[in-house]
Amino acid sequence: MDKNRTEGMKHEVKGAVKEVAGKVTGNHAKEAAGKIEKNAGKVQNEVGKAADQARDRKH
User: Fold this and answer.
1) Angstrom distance (rounded) from CA 15 to CA 38
2) Cα–Cα dist 14/6, whole Å
3) At 59, is the pLDDT very low, low, confident or very high (cuts 50, 70, 90)?
4) 12 and 34 in contact (C-beta within 8 Å)?
5) Structural domain boundaries enclosing 39
């Protein structure tokens, strides 16, 4: 499994937690930061998936 997949998942989870914490506390900046981190994690996860697929095609 590509390192980007694991790191991406980590960022998705951290971002989701920040987003919820921001919503609960009414902290719009934290909520926005959580959304950004969550979406960046999704992108990183997809990059990792693409790398895994490319490596699998070579074999």
Assistant:
1) 4
2) 12
3) confident
4) no
5) 1-11+28-53
